[in-house]
C-alpha cells in the first residue's frame, strides 16, 4: 500500500512499485484516478504499475488493457484500476505485472493512460471486487472505473435492443417494469381507481431511481457496429429479454455516456426460450394484436417495398395461424379496404377459403390506421349491426360487433380499443407530459376512456347482450388513469398481474389489455399474453436492413405482444334482455340470416334500403313504423350498408355483415 506521507517515506517504498535502479517518479493508480469524476493528473505524464486484468487488442475493440493495483489507498471513492489505451497490446497478457509510463487523459468521461510504454515486472493476480445491485447511488460506479468486478448474483437481461447493433445487453437483478405498470400515480394502494391527481408520484420517482441504481450494461469488448458473429447468441439464433446470467465477471468501462462491463472469461447465459402459444382453454378463443402498421401502400408507415411487405405478412400470418383464434381484434392496419382484405385473403389461403370474415369501419380522412375484427365463420355469426364510435376525442374508430356462438347460441359483444399513443408530437395544455409517469396525451386517453364507457354501456342497453369482451392496445400501463376509469365503471381487467406486452428503453409493461363485463367474466376460462415480440430484438423484424437475421416465423412480427382470452361458450348468456327504448333505428341480426330494424318511437312511413360496398342497391322494402323482419338470405356473403329513410329524410344507417 502506498501511503501519502513525507517524501522520504515515499522513497523508502519505491522498490515495492518499481524495479531496482529505476528512479522515475511514480503515482499509484488511486492517485491517478482521484476521488472525483476527473483525474487530478489530467494532461500530465505519469508512471504507475499494476496487474493486467483484461486485454482488448486490435481495431474495432476497446483498444488496450486494464491494470489494477489492489488496495492502492484506503479511500473507497478512488478506483484501483485504469485503462491503458493502445490499439496494439503486443504480447501483453492477463496476469502480467507491468510498469506503465504515459499521459493521463479524460476521454469522453473515462480516465485513461495514452501514448504508453510498458515494462513487464513479473506476474500477479487480482481478486475481483464483488458488487451487488442496487448501488447506494448511480454515481457510485465512478469509484469502480477500470476495476475487475464480479457479480455473484443472477442478472436478468432487461434490454436487448442494442445487442444486434452494438453487442450490448442491459442487465438488472430482475426484469425492470415501467413504474406505472404496478404503481398508481394517484392511489397509494394500486387497486384504487382514482383517475386524477398526483398524490403518489413520489413512489413512481423512487422506483425510477431504484431502477437507475440497479442497471448495468454488458458489452462485448468491441466498438464496431453490427458485430459478427453476434455475441452470446442462443440456439434459436436470438437472445431474448428474460435470459439470465449468474456470476458475471468483467472490467468496468465507461463509453458513449454509460458505464458498462467488458467481460473477462465466459458469459454464462441461460436462455429465455421462445414460448409456445399459451393454452387459454374454453371453446371460443379471442385474440388481440397491434400489427405495427400493416400497409399495402408501400413506403408509407409500414413496409418500404414489396419484399418487406411479403416478409411482414409471412411473420404476421405465422402468429395468426398459430393462435388459431375464433375472433381477432387487429390494430394498426392501413385506413383503407385494401390492407385488411390483403391480410384476410392471405390468412384464408393458409387455413381454408372463407374460414375468416371481417367487419371494419374506416377512420375519417384518408391516412392513419384503423382496427379490424376477423372472425371464424364456422364458430361465430354476427347478430348485431357493427357499432362504431368515431371523431373527437378519438383518432380512429372503435368498433363493436355482437356475435352468437353457432354451436349453442351463446351471445357476446366483442369490442376493439386503440387509444392515443404516448408520443408527444403536437401535445399542448393538459396533454403535455405531467411528469407523473403516464407520458403525453394522458388527458386525451382519459377523455377516450370516459367516452368509451358510455358508448359501450349504450350498446349493451340497445342490444340486451350483457357479456362484453374488450381487447386492444390501450397505450396505457396497468395502473394508469384510463384503465382506472374502465375499472371504476364495473369492467374487470382480465390479464394476470405481472404480464407484459411491450418494451421501451429496457423497461416492460402491458399496453395491451382485455376487459370484460361481469357476464363475460362468468364465462371466462383463462387469459395470457404471448411474448413473441417484446422479448425479441427489434432488429429481427422484416426490414431489408435485417434480412440476414430474418426468420419466417411469428417472432418479432410486431412490437406489441398478442393477448389471448379463452371463453367457456356454455356459460355465455343465451337470451337477449329486453331492448331499451331508442329514438334511433337499430338493425338486429339473428343467426338465421334475418335482420330486424327497430325503433323506440313511431315515425312516418319509411323505406329500408340495402347497398353493397360498391354502392349498388341490393334491397328496398317499405318499412313499418315499429320495425319489421327483412329476409337477407338471398344476398351474397359480405358487408352491406343499410339506410332507413322516412318521408322527411334519413333516420338511420349502418353496416352489417351477411354470412
Characteristics:
OB fold (Dihydrolipoamide Acetyltransferase, E2P), 6-stranded mixed β-sheet, single chain, 659 residues, Deoxyribonuclease I, Chain A, alpha+beta, 14% helix
Secondary-structure class:
alpha+beta
pLDDT average, as an integer? 89
Structural shape: elongated
Beginning-to-end CA distance, first to last residue: 86 Å
In the predicted model, the low-confidence regions spanning at least 5 consecutive residues are 1-24, 576-583, 599-603
Number of structural domains? 4
Enumerate how many helices there are, as a single number.
9
Query: In percent terms, what proportion of residues is strand?
Result: 25-35%
CATH topology of the largest domain: Deoxyribonuclease I, Chain A
Question: Which CATH top level class of the largest domain fits?
Answer: Alpha Beta
Find the count of extended strands (DSSP E, 2+ residues): 33
CATH architectural name of the largest domain: 4-Layer Sandwich
Major β-sheet, in short? 6 strands, mixed
What does this structure look like?
Mean pLDDT is 89; it is low at 1-24, 576-583 and 599-603. The protein is of the alpha+beta class. It folds into four domains: 7-127, OB fold (Dihydrolipoamide Acetyltransferase, E2P) (Beta Barrel); 138-176 and 214-270, OB fold (Dihydrolipoamide Acetyltransferase, E2P); 284-570, Endonuclease/exonuclease/phosphatase (Deoxyribonuclease I, Chain A), CATH 3.60.10.10; 586-658, Sandwich (Immunoglobulin-like), CATH 2.60.40. 14% of the residues lie in helices and 34% in strands. The termini are far apart. It is elongated and about 105 Å long. Strands 15-16-14-13-26-25 form a six-stranded mixed sheet, covered by helices on one side. Strands 17-18-19-20-24-21 form a six-stranded mixed sheet. It has a five-stranded mixed barrel with strand order 1-2-3-5-4.
